[in-house]
Amino acid sequence: MPSDASTPLSGWRAGFRVGIGLAIGAFALAVSFGAFAVTNGWPAWLAIVMSAVTFSGSAQFALVTAASGGGLVAGIGAAALINARFIPMAAASARWLHGGPVRRAFEGQAVVDGSWVAAQNGDGSLDRRKMFGATLVQWPAWTLGTAIGALFAPSTAFMRDFGLDVIFPAFFLVLLLDALRARPRFVPIALAAAGIGAVAAFVLPSGVALLLCALSAVLAAVRTAKGSER
Amino acid sequence: MTGMVLAVVALALINFVYKGVGPAVLGDRRFAPRVQAMIDALPVALLAGLLVVNLLGERWQNADVTVVPGLAAAGVAWWARMPQLGCVAIAVVVTIAVRLL
C-alpha cells in the first residue's frame, strides 16, 4: 500500500499549491473574525493569540458569540462540540503519520478541514506532506487576517463585494468533485451528507451540523457489511 | 479578561487533544473492513457537508443565490480539467460579475 505516494518535494509542493487557494479564503474569513471579536469586546491581542493557538474558524466564532452573552463555559462547550469533528479526521489520518505516539500527536495537529481533505489520495491513503504543506500556508494567513481585522475592523461587506465568500465553497466543491471522480461509488454518501447538512444547518450550530454529516459515512459500512454477507 | 484568556487556553488544549489523541493511540493499527470503509468514506461525507454548511450558514443566514452561477462555472471548469486554483478563480470572477448586474 502506498503510504507515501509522493516524493518529499512533490508532496510539500502540492500542499503549498492547494494551501494558497485555501489561505486566501482563510485570510478573508480571519479578517471578519478579527473585526467580529473586537466588536464583541475582546482585546485585539487576545483575538490574534486565539487565532494563532487554536486555528479553528467556526469554533472561534462560537466562543466569541457565547462569551459576549456572558457564557464563557458554554462558549468553550460549543467550541469543543464544533471541533469534535477533528477526532475522527485525525484518527483516520493516524496510519499515514510517522514516528512514535508523541510525534504522531504533533503531526496530527496539521489536521485542518481543507488540508485534510486535499491530502486524501484516490486510493484511500493520505499524503501527510501535502497536508503539512497546505496547513503551513493557511496558518499565517489565518493569524495575519485576524490581526488586520482586529486592528483595523474593516467593513465585512468587502468579502461580498470582492466575491471572497465564494472561495471556500468553490474549493470544497472542486475537492469534492476530485474525490468523487476517483471514487464514484461514494456519490450517494456525498448526496446523503449534503442533505443532512442542509437540514442540520437550519437548526444546529455549523460545527455540529458538520459532525452529523459524517454519519452518512455509515452508509459505506452498511454496504460493506452487506457485501460480506453475500 | 482572565476568563477570556483561560477560555482561549482551554480551546487550544482541547484542539491539541482532539487532533493528537487518535494518531498517538491508534498508530498504524488496521481496522475491521466495516470500520475502514467508514473511515474511507469520511472525506467525501465531510467535504459535501462543509460545502453545504458553508454555503447555507447557521439558520441558513448565509444562503445567497448569487454564488450559484459562480459555483456552476467552477463545476464546468473542473469538468474541462482546469486546475483547482483556476476553477476557484473562475467562481470568484463569475460571482462578482453576477453581483454587479
What does this structure look like?
The complex is a heterodimer of chains A (230) and B (101). By secondary structure, chain A is mostly helical. Chain A is built from 13 helices and no strands. Chain A has one domain. Chain A is 74% helix and 0% strand. Chain B folds into 3 domains: 30 residues; 27 residues; 36 residues, no CATH class. In chain B, α3 runs antiparallel to α4. The model of chain B has no long low-confidence stretch (mean pLDDT 89). The interface between A and B is large, with 104 and 72 residues.
User: Which chains have the largest interface?
Assistant: A-B, 104 and 72 residues
Q: Spans of chain B of 5+ residues with little confidence (pLDDT < 50)?
A: none
**Order of SSEs of chain B, N→C?**
HHHH
* Major sheet description of chain A: none
* Count of the domains of chain A: 1
Number of helices of chain A: 13
Low-confidence residue ranges of chain A: none
Order of helices and strands of chain A: HHHHHHHHHHHHH
How is the main sheet of chain B built?
none
- Helicity level of chain A, as a percent range? over 70%
Question: How big a fraction of the residues of chain B is strand?
Answer: under 5%
Please give the alpha-carbon distance between the first and last residues of chain A: 26 Å
Write down how many β-strands of chain B occur, each being a DSSP E stretch of 2 or more residues: 0
User: What would the principal axes of the Cα set say about the shape of chain A?
Assistant: globular
Global structural class of chain A: mainly alpha
Oligomer: heterodimer
The total of helices of chain B stands at: 4
Main location (chain A): membrane
Transmembrane segments (chain A): 20-38, 45-66, 72-94, 131-152, 158-177, 189-222
GO cellular component, one term (chain A): plasma membrane
GO biological process, one term (chain A): L-valine transmembrane transport
